């Protein structure tokens, strides 16, 4: 540095001497009054030269010191953290959408209003849902009554089958009697027929015996038919009993298929009635309320948004060249433009986005072109904030932040 300063001082003296020589050559015949003036300027020039030298040396020293300090900061301090001012507050907002359709009867909140979980937000007109519940209750009662009647029919069918089964022995007894009468009639007819030639039996007696035999044969046929009919009636009654009991066998009234179907319809109607009352699913602040009393909404209408102000986080968009040493679990400090440097939020890195902002754009960049220009991409890094600090100094979604991550901190 000293050699450089000396060289600069030598150059200055050379230029001053050259200017003095040129001035003397241009005016050789100057008056005597001018020469004293030149003599007076010489001490001033000498003083300026003496001041210029330390000034130049001081500037050089300052530049070198600044360069050294920057080098030391970048090497030992700047490399221990990364920071960005491209960061914004975000949160898992709750979108309030009715799960049933109807006309809005009441809206209990307004924008910016704090709400608690379970607090009433809005109410729909429930006349249609009340009617549906009443109808479903009637259908359930009918199904239960049908089940009871089915069980009663099974019992009645069983009694009928038992009665018809008991008629079989009676018919069989009548058949046996008819057969005995047939055997007697046959014997009597044969005996009289054998005596017909001897004249001991008149023709009238033989005719009477023949008629009795025919009547006995007819009685046996009728008795046999009665037995067959009794057996068929008993079998049919037993089948009816089995069919009647099968519908209710092994299940209670609330387990019967028709009853369960009716109960499902009733539960669905009651659920639709409950859904006419819409409550907040989380603690937060109401934003973007878009429904009014009298408006008809469907299950796809966004009524409002609840912002969980005590569970917000920061999405910091770091350059890809800054993320080589960033890991989940590292501590972070975040400053909001809303509060300034007086409020510092503390948090930690919880993860990285699955892609850069450009990757999820509506029209992604087409880099496979001839006029491609490389642009440093930014990757969102999520920073979880301390809920206690959020309660003390509330934030809102979308606020600008400045984030700094300590690369030497702990990692998950």
Question: SSE layout and pairings?
Answer:
Layout: H1 2-26, H2 34-77, E1 81-90, E2 94-96, E3 102-107, E4 114-115, E5 120-124, H3 127-195, H4 203-246, H5 257-274, E6 277-279, E7 284-287, E8 296-297, E9 304-307, E10 313-319, E11 331-336, E12 344-352, E13 378-385, H6 387-392, E14 400-406
Antiparallel strand pairs: 1-10, 1-14, 2-9, 3-5, 3-8, 4-7, 5-6, 7-9, 10-13, 11-12, 11-14, 12-13
Helix pairs in contact: 1-2, 3-4, 3-5
Description of the molecule:
- By secondary structure, the chain is an alpha+beta fold.
- The protein has four domains: 33 residues, no CATH class; 110 residues, Elongation Factor Tu (Ef-tu), domain 3; 67 residues, OB fold (Dihydrolipoamide Acetyltransferase, E2P) (Beta Barrel); 142 residues, Helix Hairpins (Orthogonal Bundle).
- It is 50% helix and 18% strand.
- The strands form three sheets. Strands 1-10-13-12-11-14 form a six-stranded antiparallel β-barrel. A four-stranded antiparallel beta sheet has the order 2-9-7-4, with no helix packed on it.
- Helix 1 packs antiparallel against helix 2 and helix 3 packs antiparallel against helix 4.
Offer a quick outline of the entry.
It contains six helices and 14 strands. The chain has 412 residues and is an alpha+beta fold.
> How many DSSP E strands?
14
Helix and strand succession? HHEEEEEHHHEEEEEEEEHE
For the residues shown, what is the average pLDDT?
81
Count of all domains: 4
Major beta sheet, strand line-up: 1-10-13-12-11-14
Strand content: 15-25%
CATH class of the largest domain: Mainly Alpha
- Low-confidence regions: 1-9, 23-41
Annotation field: number of helices: 6
Distance between the termini: 51 Å
């Amino acid at each position: 540095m000293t050699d450089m300063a000396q060289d600069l001082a030598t150059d200055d003296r050379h230029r001053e001497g050259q200017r003095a020589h040129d001035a003397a050559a241009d005016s050789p015949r100057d008056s005597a009054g001018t020469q004293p003036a030149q003599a007076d300027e010489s001490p001033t020039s000498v003083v300026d030269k003496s001041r210029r030298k330390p000034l130049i040396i001081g500037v050089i020293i300052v530049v070198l010191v600044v360069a050294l300090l920057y080098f030391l900061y970048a090497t030992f301090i700047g490399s221990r953290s990364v920071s960005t001012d491209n960061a914004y507050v975000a949160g898992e907002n709750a979108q309030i959408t009715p799960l049933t359709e109807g006309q809005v009867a009441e809206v209990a909140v307004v924008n910016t209003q704090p709400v608690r979980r379970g607090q009433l937000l809005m109410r729909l007109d429930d006349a249609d849902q009340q009617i549906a519940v009443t109808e479903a209750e009637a259908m359930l009662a009918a199904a239960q009554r049908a089940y009871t009647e089915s069980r009663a029919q099974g019992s009645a069918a069983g009694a009928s089958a038992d009665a018809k089964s008991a008629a079989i022995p009676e018919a069989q007894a009548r058949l046996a009697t008819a057969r005995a009468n047939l055997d007697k009639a046959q014997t009597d007819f044969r005996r009289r027929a054998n005596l017909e030639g001897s004249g001991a039996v008149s023709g009238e007696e033989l005719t009477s015996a023949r008629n009795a035999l025919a009547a006995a044969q007819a009685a046996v046929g009728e008795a046999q038919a009665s037995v067959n009919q009794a057996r068929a009636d008993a079998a049919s009654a037993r089948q009816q009993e089995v069919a009647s009991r099968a519908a209710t066998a092994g299940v209670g009234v609330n387990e019967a298929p028709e009853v369960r179907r009716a109960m499902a319809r009733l539960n669905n109607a009651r659920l639709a009635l409950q859904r006419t009352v819409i409550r907040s699913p989380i603690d937060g602040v109401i934003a973007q309320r878009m429904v009014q009393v009298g408006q008809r909404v469907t299950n796809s209408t966004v009524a409002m948004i609840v912002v969980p102000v005590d569970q917000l986080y920061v999405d910091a968009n770091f350059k890809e060249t800054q993320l080589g040493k960033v890991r989940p679990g590292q501590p972070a400090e975040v400053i909001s433009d809303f509060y300034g440097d007086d409020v510092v939020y503390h948090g930690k890195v919880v993860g990285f986005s699955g892609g850069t902002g450009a990757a999820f754009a509506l029209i992604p960049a087409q880099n496979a072109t001839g006029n491609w220009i490389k642009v440093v991409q930014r990757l969102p890094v999520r920073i979880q904030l301390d809920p206690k600090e959020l309660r003390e100094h509330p934030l809102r979604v979308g606020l600008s932040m400045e984030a700094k991550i300590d690369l030497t901190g702990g990692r998950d």
